[in-house]
């Protein structure tokens, strides 16, 4: 290379070096450090994009997915909704000093919110919602003074909401819903003067609603629902604030003074949505209030409280669209104004589970679409008109009469529930009605006659429940062939005949639940049951089906519950019922053979009683006994169990007796009888006792030679207790570890054998008269008083000791208290 070439190369190097020097390495390194924590990126959104080869010369990787640049600096990281998994180390972003937006919502990221997040002084938008982040919210969060929107919702954050939150002076939206935050709500919330939307729902916050929320003049939406907040509702906030949406539902809030219970008359004109449901509100909250306009309120939900009293008239309700007062104790009539055309915009009305009474003549509202009056005490005939309702629930009332009004109800109906009433007559055979109906429940009435063929022609019907009526006759042809029907409940009627399914060439994939139990169906179960290949639940119990269970039932691969009990099925159970089966009842049939291996996961009660010829192998039973379906087999099994228990008890008693005999033989070998004690020793003992007698003391101690023997190992001698000294024990020292106790023989009368009265006066020496049951024994009181002894027992008459003599021989001594005489047989016990 010549001089000119070298000069051009150096010039190029000088020109390009400043550009390379502009690389913000700390931003790049931070992003690469974050990438290391990613363990799963199904679309390769980060792992395939963030690499060194795609770095721009201006210093910011603008070509990296989700990275937003502002000049040479990273201004945004947006990774929302890419199903990315891993540990997100957010602390690595602390060096991104120009970062304005950090958003990685709707992924599967874990980690914590680090305290150095406070370094992001430029951050305005933080959204890490719907991930698996955990730990506390750091106090340093209050240093993000530029932050305008923060969402930590749908994670596992715990602990309190820090008081430092009032440092977020620019914050307009805060969402920490769906976490495990706890403790009282901080009073610092009232310092968020820029707040527009506040969502703290679905946590475990306690105490009351903090005062001062009304000071947030920009606040439009506040959601504190489903926490553990208690205390009274802040009616002043509802009356004076400029908020539009308020949700305090799912807490423990209570009503306060009766005067404040009339709040609806003075509620703020700005409030359009108010939900106080699922609290502890009591009293007649809206009784007697003139609710002519409701202000601008569009949604009012007071359901699931303890409210009572009559409902107001609701006349001329111009703005209310949704009214839910369900599950309270309201009484009186259903306000007619809510069912008429006067309610110009009302489209949802739920007054269910109250104590409302009266008739419902007609529903003429042209806007009302959802009407739920279930679980009240309404009576009379069904309403003549159903207005424009799409959902009509009048179940669990006292309506009577027939279903002839069906022909006048609107074709707009999609959901009809008239169950648990007193309806009679037949079901109209009208095919032009209910063109949009997808749910029809007429169960638990007294409807009779046959199920009309027209029901097959309802084009969108997916759920049909006619159970617990008095329908008779066969199932309508092609009902089980409907391509739209998902669930069919016709159990507990009086239906008869056989059951036919679609042919094998016309499979019905839509029917998932079929319950025809409790009828009078007969014949065999057709092989074509396989055509219902989408079945999850099949219940044909309590009928008169007979024959073998078809093998094709094994091809119902989606089946989770099967009940064929209380029929007359015979033959074996199919070998290959699907492994998806979670519930099985085949009892009360006449099945035979052996329960297939894959069905032995179910208890024996799934097969017996009944099925006397069906064997349930012992290996499948937790008890380890052989189980047979026959009555005799089961009886024998029970008898065998009883015999086994009895034999075990007898064997145990025999073993105990053998142990006792062995024990006493061992004792007799260790301790020689009195006949084996030398005459020399006995003579010496007698002489010593005689020399120790004191004529001025009269006591009585009985010495027995029956217990003479070798000394006990481990016996000790200790000073007598104060109680023993006072009772005249003398030099006898009971063993410290003695576990013997004694109860007086209160039933014994004093004897007639002329024993001398005791006169024991010495507390530290044995004194009084000695009586020997064995006349060959002669011991002196002195020798006996020196002998260590242990207490065998005490009674109200005296104390029993076992004394050890100097020669190693021990004997039993019974000492009687002064003034007590006992027969000689007492000492032999």
UniProtKB/TrEMBL annotation:
Q: In what ranges is there compositional bias, type Basic and acidic residues? A: 676-699
In this chain, the stretch annotated as Disordered covers 610-633, 673-746
One Pfam family, please name it: LRRNT_2
Q: What's one GO-annotated cellular component? A: membrane
Compositional bias segments (type: Polar residues): 735-744
Q: How does it sit in the membrane?
A: Single-pass membrane protein
Whether Magnesium counts among this entry's keywords is no
Q: What does the UniProt keyword field contain?
A: Leucine-rich repeat, Membrane, Repeat, Signal, Transmembrane, Transmembrane helix
Q: Which residues cross the membrane?
A: 642-664
Q: Where is the composition biased (Low complexity)?
A: 619-633
Q: Where in the cell is it found?
A: Membrane
Domain Leucine-rich repeat-containing N-terminal plant-type stretches: 25-70
Q: Where is the signal peptide?
A: 1-21
Enumerate the PANTHER family for this protein. LRR RECEPTOR-LIKE SERINE_THREONINE-PROTEIN KINASE GHR1, OS07G0626500 PROTEIN
Q: What is this protein called?
A: Leucine-rich repeat-containing N-terminal plant-type domain-containing protein
Organism lineage reads as: Eukaryota, Viridiplantae, Streptophyta, Embryophyta, Tracheophyta
